[in-house]
């Protein structure tokens, strides 16, 4: 090798490194920044550092601070006319004389204009709801528990349940899908009929039956996810395995004397990794919604555990007076699932060579 060729190769090396670096930067720019930030802020960081971030206990509250609004909401004042007899058609705006005297005496109401004597026809000013405070950033629920702290610990619960369910069901479904696609025949028919049965059964119905038999628990949610989510993996992986099975490198591995187990583990599974990762990413949002739905119906996480579905259920009867009890966890669920789905689409495009070239 001449000195000129060595110098040329050395000159090309930095240029090649810069080219690869620029390619990586272009690929990173396609990452959806806003969904990534939302996912970090709403789920990952609170789930990992829940003990350090949460200002209060997630399962203990003070009844004196029940149904306090978020910190940015001011106090609500109602005005009622003092009457001798309340009219049914206008009972929301009127108050009896003796009730008005009692409220003024205990300091729960004041006469408009600053008077001390309660008379018929006066306007009584009543503090119907206290203002929010920085002590409870997102308010409190009907038991006086801090919604912000419960939201943080609920993120940990949602993340743990979704990851466990996705990993276990992914292992089961991927393994059965590879076996069905590789061996075929009667084994393939049996596994596919099991997939059809699994897809035809309602997840919520099975969860309700388990809750009636065993009581609501986190284990019920994991059982439902693992027993019925595997079929989605099995069907997709089986189709991919059928395509890989007809490739030349599989035939060469068989000719070289490799066992069926080695072919499935060393040759087929690595070529399915991208598909499994994309499917798992897209299923996380589904699992979070499923866990929240089961908890909302009373078949999932039991009280007083801080689950997002339970928080929504606790506030469904308070929407007119305490909207934040249901709205805050609902927004958290929507933002989390939306962010995960957008990231799943990006992972799918990033792992697909055809999409990366666009």
TrEMBL record:
One of its GO terms (cellular component) is plasma membrane. One of its GO terms (biological process) is transmembrane transport. PROSITE patterns: ABC_TM1. Pfam families: BPD_transp_1. Gene3D superfamilies: MetI-like. The keyword Flavoprotein does not apply. It is a multi-pass membrane protein. It is found in: Cell membrane. The chain crosses the membrane at residues 33-54, 157-183, 195-214, 220-237, 272-301, 321-344. Keywords: Cell membrane, Membrane, Transmembrane, Transmembrane helix, Transport. This is ABC transmembrane type-1 domain-containing protein. It comes from marine metagenome.
């Amino acid at each position: 090798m001449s000195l000129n060729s060595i110098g040329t190769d050395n000159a090309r090396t930095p240029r090649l490194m810069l080219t690869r670096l620029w390619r990586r930067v272009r690929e990173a720019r396609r990452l959806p920044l806003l969904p990534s930030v939302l996912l970090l802020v709403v789920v990952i960081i609170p789930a990992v550092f829940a003990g350090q971030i949460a200002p209060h206990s997630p399962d203990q509250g003070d009844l004196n601070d029940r149904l306090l609004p978020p910190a940015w909401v001011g106090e609500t004042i109602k005005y009622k006319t003092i009457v001798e007899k309340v009219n049914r058609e206008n009972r929301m705006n009127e108050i009896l004389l003796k009730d008005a005297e009692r409220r003024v005496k205990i300091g729960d109401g004041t006469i408009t204009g600053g008077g001390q004597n309660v008379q018929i026809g006066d306007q009584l000013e009543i503090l119907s709801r206290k203002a929010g405070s920085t002590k409870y950033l997102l308010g409190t629920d009907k038991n006086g528990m801090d919604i912000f702290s419960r939201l943080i610990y609920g993120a940990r619960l949602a993340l743990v349940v979704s990851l466990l369910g996705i990993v276990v069901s992914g292992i089961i479904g991927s393994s059965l899908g590879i076996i069905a696609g590789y061996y075929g025949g009667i084994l393939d028919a049996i596994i596919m009929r099991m997939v059809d049965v699994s897809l035809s059964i309602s997840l919520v119905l099975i969860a309700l039956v388990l809750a009636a038999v065993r009581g609501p628990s986190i284990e019920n949610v994991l059982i439902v996810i693992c027993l019925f989510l595997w079929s989605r993996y099995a069907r997709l992986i089986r189709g991919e395995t059928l395509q890989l099975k007809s490739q030349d490198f599989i035939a060469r591995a068989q000719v070289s004397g490799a066992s069926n187990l080695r072919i499935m583990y060393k040759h087929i599974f690595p070529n399915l990794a991208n598909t499994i990762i994309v499917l798992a990413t897209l299923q996380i949002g589904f699992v979070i919604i499923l866990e929240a739905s089961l908890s909302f119906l009373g078949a999932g996480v039991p009280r007083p555990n801080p689950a997002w579905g339970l928080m929504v259920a606790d506030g469904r009867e308070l929407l007119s007076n305490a909207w934040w009890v249901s709205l805050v966890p609902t927004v958290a669920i929507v933002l989390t699932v939306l962010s995960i789905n957008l990231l799943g689409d990006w992972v799918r495009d990033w792992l697909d060579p055809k999409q990366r070239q666009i």
